[in-house]
Write a structure and sequence with these properties.
mainly beta, 5 helices, 12-stranded mixed beta sheet, 39% strand, 7-stranded antiparallel beta sheet, globular, 19 strands
C-alpha cells in the first residue's frame, strides 16, 4: 500500500469514531457462478500435472496483469457488493499527462478517479474539490488480477482451471483459487481468451455464496480513448480546492521484517499518515497471503497504557471484515478481505509500531 494505496482507506476514514480511523475501502477491485467450496487441507501440488497447472495459472495471471497495464480500452463495469450495485465507466489510454486510467462513477455522487504513474486524483464536483494522492497504488485495481505474490498463493489456495462463460461478448477461461481452510475467502477470475485481460472476478465464502463481484458489462479493446484533458468534464475546476493527502510510504520497519506472520499473512507495505488534528502520525501496515489483503491502522493514545487489550466492535460487509479495538497503548482498526476471525487472529499476533 503506497501513498495512493493508503489513500482511499484514510481519506474516507474517521466517519464513525473520531479517535479511530474507520476505513471505508473504495477498492475498485472488490468481487453468479458455480463456486467450489473450501475443501480439506492439502499440500501444494507436487505431481507433474499439478506443477503444470500452477505454471499455466501463473502465466494467465501475468498475461492479465500485462494486458491491464498495456492495452488501451474503454468499457463499463459493475461492482456488486453488500450495499448493492455500483457501476462505472473505465477508460485507459493516453492523455497530455501520459498514460492514464480514468474511472467515472455512473451511480451516486459524481466522481472521477484518475490514475497516473505518479499519483491518483479524485475529482469531486459536488464538493468542488480535487484530492491528490501521491505515488502509484500498491492495490491492484480491477481489471488487474488480485494476485500479489503468486509464489505464496499455492500455500493457501488450491488452483482450478476451467473454460468459462461468455462475458461482455467474449469467451473466457476461469481460474479458481479455492482456500485450503476457512481462514480466507475463495476467489474466481475470468480471463478473455483472446487478449488475456480479466473480465470478471468474484469473492466467495466457504459455501460458494458470492460476497463481492466485479464484471465488465461491455468492453472495447484496442482503440485508444480520446482523453484530451482529464479535467474537461468540469467547469471552473481551477477554482476548486486541491487537497494533497498527508500520506507517506516508509521503508519496512525492522519490527515488521522480523515478524513471522500469522495465518499465512506477511507484511507487504508500511506508511505514515499525518492528520492535522493529531500531534503524531498514524501508522498503516498492509499484509497479504498472496491474494487477500488486510490493512491495520495504529493510533497511539497514552491514555490506553496499562489497559487490557480489547475488541470494541467487529463488522462484515460483503467480503470485507472490519475490527476496531485497542492494544498496548494503541487504537487499532483492521480492514481486510477476510473472515472476521481471521482479522482478529492477525491482530492478536501483531507487533506494535515504535514511537
Amino acid at each position: 500500500m503506497t501513498n495512493a494505496l493508503l489513500v482511499p482507506a484514510f481519506a474516507l476514514a474517521c466517519q464513525r469514531v473520531r479517535r479511530v480511523v474507520l476505513l471505508r475501502i473504495v477498492f475498485l477491485s472488490l468481487f453468479v457462478a458455480q463456486a467450489g467450496s473450501a475443501s480439506a487441507a492439502e499440500p501444494p501440488a507436487t505431481t507433474k500435472a499439478g506443477q503444470q497447472l500452477q505454471a499455466r495459472a501463473k502465466v494467465m495471471v501475468q498475461r492479465a496483469a500485462d494486458s491491464a497495464s498495456r492495452l488501451d480500452f474503454s468499457g463499463t463495469y459493475v461492482h456488486q457488493h453488500a450495499k448493492g450495485l455500483y457501476s462505472a465507466k473505465v477508460m485507459r489510454g493516453l492523455s497530455p499527462e501520459g498514460r492514464v486510467t480514468v474511472i467515472d462513477a455512473l451511480d451516486g455522487p459524481a466522481r472521477r478517479t484518475v490514475r497516473l504513474s505518479s499519483e491518483v486524483r479524485a475529482y469531486l464536483p459536488d464538493q468542488k474539490q480535487v484530492r491528490i494522492y501521491p505515488g502509484a497504488s500498491v492495490r491492484l485495481d480491477f481489471p488487474h488480477p488480485p494476485v500479489y505474490d503468486f509464489a505464496r498463493v499455492t500455500e493457501h489456495y488450491q488452483i482450478r482451471l476451467a473454460t468459462g462463460k461468455r462475458i461482455a461478448g467474449r469467451m473466457t477461461d476461469r481460474l479458481e483459487f479455492v482456500p485450503r481452510n476457512q481462514s480466507r475467502w475463495g476467489v474466481h477470475c475470468w480471463f478473455d481468451q483472446a487478449s488475456g485481460i480479466m473480465l470478471k472476478t468474484q469473492t466467495l465464502d466457504a459455501n460458494g455464496a458470492v460476497l463481492e463481484e466485479h464484471s465488465f458489462s461491455d468492453l472495447n479493446l484496442g482503440s485508444s480513448p480520446q482523453l484530451p484533458s482529464l479535467e474537461a468534464p468540469f467547469k471552473d475546476v481551477g477554482s476548486w480546492q486541491r487537497v494533497t493527502a498527508p500520506i507517506h510510504r516508509e521503508p519496512m520497519p525492522q519490527v515488521l521484517k522480523d515478524y513471522v506472520g500469522s495465518l499465512g499473512f506477511l507484511p507487504l507495505a508500511a506508511a505514515k499518515v499525518k492528520e492535522p488534528s493529531s500531534s503524531l502520525p498514524h501508522t498503516q501496515w498492509l499484509f497479504t497471503d498472496g491474494i487477500a489483503l488486510v490493512s491495520v491502522f495504529f493510533i497511539h493514545d497514552p491514555k490506553l497504557n496499562g489497559q487490557a487489550n480489547s475488541t470494541e466492535s467487529s463488522d462484515l460487509k460483503g467480503a470485507t471484515a472490519m475490527i476496531i479495538g485497542s492494544k498496548s497503548g494503541y487504537h487499532l482498526t483492521a480492514l481486510g478481505e477476510v473472515p472476521i476471525d481471521t482479522a482478529k487472529g492477525l491482530l492478536v499476533t501483531l507487533p506494535l509500531p515504535q514511537q
